[in-house]
Amino acid sequence: MKKSLALIGLICLGSCRRSAPAQPTSDVPPGEVWLTPQQVKDGQIAVEPVQDRPVGGIIRAAGRVTFDDLRVAHVFSPVTGRITKILAQPGERVKKEQALCVLQSPDLGSAVSDLAKAQATLLTAEKDWRRQRELYEVHAASQRDYENAETAYRNAKAEMERAQRKARLLRSAGGDQVTQEFVLRAPIDGQVIMRGANPGLEIQGQYSGGATVELFTIGELDQVWVLADVFEMDLPRVKLGAEVTVNVLAYPTDSFTGHVEWISAALDPISRTAKVRCSIKNSDSKLRPEMFGTAAIAVEPDSKLAVKRSAVLLMGEQPVVFAQVGTSADGRLRFQRRPVAAEEITGGDYLPLKAGLERGDQIVVSGGVLLLGML
From 117, 162, 224, 245, which residue has the greatest number of CB atoms within 10 Å? Predict the structure, then answer.
């Protein structure tokens, strides 16, 4: 009986050992991930070959928004005086020749007085010159006296013309020589961007030779300039007429487009950059002068061995990619992690390669983050 029970036990033990599954052994090398075709499909992992690609089709440069010089006017007073009335406010649209402010100016009275003095001096000098000429012709006066009289007459005539031009200019610019009121007018159509004039302010005129103050800035903002600072090494690739896209901090989701109109012929000796002027449409007036932004200038791309930007991952501080290197014995796809070195250009979908890959290598361009998490 005991022998029978022992025999039954041995038979049951052997049967249990034969029915237990074999333990799998890990044969995946370090730095690799093996996936079945279904897992690759579910993870939406995509690969593409490493080959020559057009890279560097955009140059990015820091830029500053400014007025279009042909659409802005800086208004100064031509006469010295005191502001008595303000007729235009910031933000107001004005027409050409519309009154901006009124000044009480002694220059108008001086212009009338100078003109009268010049007329009297000219009349006296002309009479003396004619008399000296008649005497000289009959040999009753010296040549020296005649020449001095002629010089005085010519000087008086020149002073008369200067006084006439000044009086005419002040009169046409809005001066009333009777009341000594001068009306400062807008030189162009536009919006009052800045007003530096206040009632009672004493100002020096442009014709007086003193330090003048800008009283109004009038401009249109439907088109502005962006002055971009392009580095010396990138300058040969920038061409006139190239398309430009501008982004500013105030509107991070908006882009403003235009074209390159002018490239500076000189470089800044400190920053080693050249000014590139871009004309930008600004119909909604979002761009304001002195805003800072980034200008993306389209240039002719170079053809280089490159890898897609989305394929490059960071493992610590080391950029890596995953290369498909074949299949395993059981049919799984093998993906191997490889360190790479690529140029950090700022524009475009592809990065030029320096080291780490060869032409034709199959690189994961989508889903690499999933593989990185499985290591």
Answer: 224
Tokens standing for residue 362:
């199959």
**Parts of the chain belonging to CATH 1.10.287.470:** 109-172
- Fold for the domain defined by 32-54+303-374: 2.40.420
For CATH 2.40.30.170, the residue range(s) in the chain are 59-69+221-301
> Please, what CATH class does the domain formed by 73-106+186-218 belong to?
mainly beta
pLDDT for position 23: 33
- At 17 the pLDDT is 40
Query: What number does CATH give the domain 109-172?
Result: 1.10.287.470
- Give residue 257's identity as a one-letter amino acid code: T
Q: Is the pTM of this model over 0.90?
A: no
Q: What is the pLDDT of residue 11?
A: 40
Which residues in the chain show pLDDT less than 70? 1-26, 108-112, 166, 168-179, 207-210, 345-347
Asked if residue 290 lies in contact with residue 226, where contact means CB atoms within 8 angstroms, the answer is no
